[in-house]
UniProtKB/TrEMBL annotation:
<protein>
    <submittedName>
        <fullName>Acyltransferase family protein</fullName>
    </submittedName>
</protein>
<feature type="transmembrane region" description="Helical">
    <location>
        <begin position="78"/>
        <end position="96"/>
    </location>
</feature>
<keyword id="KW-0472">Membrane</keyword>
<feature type="compositionally biased region" description="Pro residues">
    <location>
        <begin position="14"/>
        <end position="24"/>
    </location>
</feature>
<keyword id="KW-1133">Transmembrane helix</keyword>
<feature type="transmembrane region" description="Helical">
    <location>
        <begin position="108"/>
        <end position="129"/>
    </location>
</feature>
<feature type="domain" description="Acyltransferase 3">
    <location>
        <begin position="78"/>
        <end position="377"/>
    </location>
</feature>
<keyword id="KW-0812">Transmembrane</keyword>
<feature type="transmembrane region" description="Helical">
    <location>
        <begin position="326"/>
        <end position="344"/>
    </location>
</feature>
<dbReference type="InterPro" id="IPR052734">
    <property type="entry name" value="Nod_factor_acetyltransferase"/>
</dbReference>
<dbReference type="GO" id="GO:0016747">
    <property type="term" value="F:acyltransferase activity, transferring groups other than amino-acyl groups"/>
</dbReference>
<feature type="transmembrane region" description="Helical">
    <location>
        <begin position="294"/>
        <end position="319"/>
    </location>
</feature>
<keyword id="KW-0012">Acyltransferase</keyword>
<feature type="transmembrane region" description="Helical">
    <location>
        <begin position="172"/>
        <end position="192"/>
    </location>
</feature>
<feature type="transmembrane region" description="Helical">
    <location>
        <begin position="141"/>
        <end position="160"/>
    </location>
</feature>
<feature type="compositionally biased region" description="Low complexity">
    <location>
        <begin position="45"/>
        <end position="63"/>
    </location>
</feature>
<feature type="region of interest" description="Disordered">
    <location>
        <begin position="1"/>
        <end position="73"/>
    </location>
</feature>
Length: 417
């Protein structure tokens, strides 16, 4: 059976709106569009906040809209739906991980989902990062929406492991992300490099070459989880250069129909591969040498996984509803669901829930675990949970930054002074 190891975690990530081709002022409202169309997002949402995962920023995420007296920009249901469905798959994957050593079917589903759920999140993160530059307000939102939550949850997860796993020696290290926090530091690095990717030629092949070099470089080490940062980089860069028409293309009826046999083939392939390969490849946290294979295998696996991930991500997007659904509003809270569900996922291992209940490894138990995981992460994405934990996820922190002249002028203008 496979050598399943605890997964990286996901999500944060996540996604600020993008800069349209024709430059607009930062406070410009999007032009009217036809129903169900994929918008060209407006610039300036916070990368690590709930608005960062949306097609348009919510006024409560950064306070900018409130300060200037502007109405909130409209969110796009397609992307909110995609984020919610992806975070549900993330939670399911974590729930299936303890089952994979005893169930080939669970391992096949696990490998299939892990092929595309993080790439889909990262691609959307890149798509909504197209407007990022070194403007002070965007740098502030990068700090408050990504860097600060990273510090808070890195400390919180470490303390939780000390207590829950009876491991008082677990160190607090901001240089060595633990569990889900890797995505935050990765998003921070990716977004800082966005201006560079905008000026190079053939950015996606270049990012893929960097990923291949990373997978054959065991000396990179664990600092800032750079293996993951570099190996997942091509998906972020691909998202940077996606256009609205690309999302329209994958949502065509014929693509939706073709995606069914593609997904079926992927599950069958994963079922065949389950006892023959390790699922650690999907975490992208180790070099080929650390996995005990020749260096060239790492390059082949990087290219193969990239192709499979892009294909299944397109199939996933093909089935994401474009209209408003009952869960659409939860798309704004995927950051909360992502970070908070990790405590329950880890706690279930620390306290031996799966070992103490053998029936969970039976088919009915596997279904039960799947439903519970989906229900828990759904609850954690709801607005009441967002309000409760906004202090950690989306801190305002005006006290930490100097007020520039432009912001002060906007405040005075809005107040009529």
């Amino acid at each position: 059976m496979t050598n399943s190891v605890q997964p990286h975690g996901r999500h944060r990530a996540p996604l600020p709106p993008v800069q349209p081709p024709v430059p607009e002022p930062a406070d410009a409202m999007p032009a009217p569009r036809a129903p169900h169309s994929v918008p060209r997002p407006a610039p300036g949402s916070a990368p690590g906040s709930s608005s960062a995962y949306a097609a348009a920023p919510a006024p409560t995420a950064t306070g900018d809209s409130r300060a200037a007296g502007r109405p909130a920009k409209q969110r796009d249901s397609f992307f909110d739906n995609a984020k919610y469905l992806a975070i549900v798959l993330v939670a399911m994957g974590h729930a299936w991980e303890p089952l994979t050593d005893h169930s080939r079917s669970a391992e096949a589903l696990y490998m299939t989902v892990y092929t595309f759920h993080m790439p889909a999140f990262i691609l959307i993160s890149g798509y909504f990062s197209r407007s990022f530059d070194m403007r002070p307000d965007r740098l502030k939102r990068l700090v408050t929406g990504v860097a600060v939550p990273y510090v808070i949850f890195e400390v919180a997860y470490t303390l939780f492991k000390r207590w829950g796993d009876d491991d008082p020696t677990q160190p607090i290290s901001l240089l060595d992300p633990w569990y889900l926090t890797w995505f935050l530091i990765a998003l921070f690095v990716w977004r800082l490099t966005t201006p560079l990717w905008k000026i190079v030629r053939r950015p996606v092949p270049l990012a893929l070459a960097i990923a291949m070099l990373a997978v054959i470089s065991p000396d990179i080490g664990d600092d800032l989880d750079l293996q993951r940062v570099l190996q997942f980089l091509p998906f972020f860069v691909l998202g940077l250069f996606m256009k609205p028409e690309h999302f329209q293309l994958v949502r065509r009826r014929e693509v939706r129909i073709l995606s069914v046999p593609v997904f079926a083939a992927a599950v069958l392939c994963a079922y065949w591969a389950a006892p023959r390969m390790t699922s650690v490849w999907f975490y992208r946290r180790d070099s080929a040498q650390e996995l005990g294979v020749p260096w060239w295998v790492g390059i082949v696996m990087t290219l193969a996984l990239f192709g499979c991930s892009v294909l299944l991500t397109a199939c996933f997007f093909a089935w994401v509803p474009r209209r408003r659904m009952w869960f659409t509003v939860l798309g704004a809270g995927t950051l909360y669901g992502y970070l908070l569900h990790g405590f329950l996922a880890k706690g279930s291992r620390f306290w031996g829930w799966f070992d103490a209940n053998p029936w969970l490894h039976e088919p009915a138990g596997e279904v039960f675990v799947t439903v519970v995981a989906a229900a828990v992460v759904t609850l954690l994405c709801t607005p009441p949970v967002q309000r409760l934990f906004r202090f950690a996820m989306e801190p305002r922190m005006e006290w930490a930054f100097r007020r520039d002249a432009a912001a002060l002028a906007r405040e005075r203008s809005s107040s009529g002074r």
